[in-house]
C-alpha cells in the first residue's frame, strides 16, 4: 500500500488519523508513505507506516516522480491533494486500486467530491469513509517520546513559520515571553533552520539567556520531547503547533490567513486558537504571502497572555 503525502510537518500530522485507519483496514500490507525524508521519525511515531519513500517538491507541489521499485502497489492512496497531478503520479505505478477524490481532470477516478471548507483531518477521514474504511479524525495523539525534554516544564515560544503571512511580530512574542518569565515560568524560544536571527531577536528583547534559546532547527526527537514536556506551546499556524497537539501539550495558536476551522486544534480546553475576524478592507488571506496577515497583526500580546494564563495555572497545581 502506497500513500502519497509529500508535504510539511503539519500536513503529515493532520493525516495521522487517516494513516492509522488505512493501517487497520489493510493490516497485512506493507504501508509505504511517500513523503519528505526528514519526516521519517514522524511517520514511525504514528505507528501506521512501515517504510518511508522519500518524495518532495518545492512549494507544496506534486513530485514529478516516485522512486518506486518492485511490482505495482495493491493499493495507492492520494492524501496529497485533490488531483489531477497527484492522481496521475500514482496511476503511473499501475496500482491495483486508487483511493482519491474525484476531479474533472481524471474522470475515471470514482471518488468523493472535494470540499474546500473542511478541516484537513476531517477531509482525509471522509475520503476513506467513502471507500468503506472507518476513520476517526480524533485519532491523532502520538506516544510519548523516548528521550528527555531539553527544557521540561518550560513555556515554549516558536515565532517562526514557512511564510511571513503566518509570523506574528517578534516584539510581541518578546512581550509575552517577558511577562511569562515575570510570573515565574521558564521560557524557551525555538526556531527552524534559517530562523536563528528571528529567535535571537525575540530572546534578546525578552532578556532570555543562552540556555533558553533552542535555535538551528532541533532534531525531531528533541523537538518532540520539548513539546511533550512543555507547560504550554505558543506559536503561529505551523508545524510545531500540530506537533504540540499530537503530544498532548497545551497550546495557544495564532491564526491569520487561514481560519482555525480548517487547520486548528481539536475542541479541547487545553488548546486555544486565536484569530481576529477579517475586515472588509483586508486583502484576501494568503498563507504563502511575505507580509504578516492583517488579521494576525490584530492579535495583541494581552490576548495571548489571557489565553495562556489559565493553562499555566492548571500546570502549576
What does the largest sheet look like?
6 strands, parallel
State the total count of DSSP E strands.
11
Q: From the 3D coordinates, which CATH architecture of the largest domain would you assign?
A: 3-Layer(aba) Sandwich
Shape: globular
CATH level-3 fold name of the largest domain: Rossmann fold
Kindly report the average pLDDT value.
95
Beta-strand percent range: 5-15%
Q: SSE string, helix = H, strand = E?
A: EHHEHEEHEHEHEHEHEHEHEHH
How many separate structural domains?
Answer: 2
The helix fraction, in percent, is: 25-40%
What structural class do the secondary elements suggest?
A: alpha/beta
Low-confidence stretches: none
Return the CATH class of the largest domain: Alpha Beta
Relevant CATH superfamily of the largest domain: Glycogen Phosphorylase B
Note down, in words, how this protein is organized.
The structure is a single chain. It contains twelve helices and eleven strands. Strand 2, helix 3 and strand 3 (51-54) form a beta-alpha-beta unit. It folds into two domains: 2-130, Glycogen Phosphorylase B (Rossmann fold, 3-Layer(aba) Sandwich); 155-316, Glycogen Phosphorylase B (Rossmann fold). It has 317 residues and is α/β, with parallel strands linked by helices. Helices cover 33% and strands 13% of the residues. It has a six-stranded parallel sheet, sandwiched between helices. A five-stranded parallel sheet has the order 3-2-1-4-5, with helices on both faces.
Amino acid at each position: 500500500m502506497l500513500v502519497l503525502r509529500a508535504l510539511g510537518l503539519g500536513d503529515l500530522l493532520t493525516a495521522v488519523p487517516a494513516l492509522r485507519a488505512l493501517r487497520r483496514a489493510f493490516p497485512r500490507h506493507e504501508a509505504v508513505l511517500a513523503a519528505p525524508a526528514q519526516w521519517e521519525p514522524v511517520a514511525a511515531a504514528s505507528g501506521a507506516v512501515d517504510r518511508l519513500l522519500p518524495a518532495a517538491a518545492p512549494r507544496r507541489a506534486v513530485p514529478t516522480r516516485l522512486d518506486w521499485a518492485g511490482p505495482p502497489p495493491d493499493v495507492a492512496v492520494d492524501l496529497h491533494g485533490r488531483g489531477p497531478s497527484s492522481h496521475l503520479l500514482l496511476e503511473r505505478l499501475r496500482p491495483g486500486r486508487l483511493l482519491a477524490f474525484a476531479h474533472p481532470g481524471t474522470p475515471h477516478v470514482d471518488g468523493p467530491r472535494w470540499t474546500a471548507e473542511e478541516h484537513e483531518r476531517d477531509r482525509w477521514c471522509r475520503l476513506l469513509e467513502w471507500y468503506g474504511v472507518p476513520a476517526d479524525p480524533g485519532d491523532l495523539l502520538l506516544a510519548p517520546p523516548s528521550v528527555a525534554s531539553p527544557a521540561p516544564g518550560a513555556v515554549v515560544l516558536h515565532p517562526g513559520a514557512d511564510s511571513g503571512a503566518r509570523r506574528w511580530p517578534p516584539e510581541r512574542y518578546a512581550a509575552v515571553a517577558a511577562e511569562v518569565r515575570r510570573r515565574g515560568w521558564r521560557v524557551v524560544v525555538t526556531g527552524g533552520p534559517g530562523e536563528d536571527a528571528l529567535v535571537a531577536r525575540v530572546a534578546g528583547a525578552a532578556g532570555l539567556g543562552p540556555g533558553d534559546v533552542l535555535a538551528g532547527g532541533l532534531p525531531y526527537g528533541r523537538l518532540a520531547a520539548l513539546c511533550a514536556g512543555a507547560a504550554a506551546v505558543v506559536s503561529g499556524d505551523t508545524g510545531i503547533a500540530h506537533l504540540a497537539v499530537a503530544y498532548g501539550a497545551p497550546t495557544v495558536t495564532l491564526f491569520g490567513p487561514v481560519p482555525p476551522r480548517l487547520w486548528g486544534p481539536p475542541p479541547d480546553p487545553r488548546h486555544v486558537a486565536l484569530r481576529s475576524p477579517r475586515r472588509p478592507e483586508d486583502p484576501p488571506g494568503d498563507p504563502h504571502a511575505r507580509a504578516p496577515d492583517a488579521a494576525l497583526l490584530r492579535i495583541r500580546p494581552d490576548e495571548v497572555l489571557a489565553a495562556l494564563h489559565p493553562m499555566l495555572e492548571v500546570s502549576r497545581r
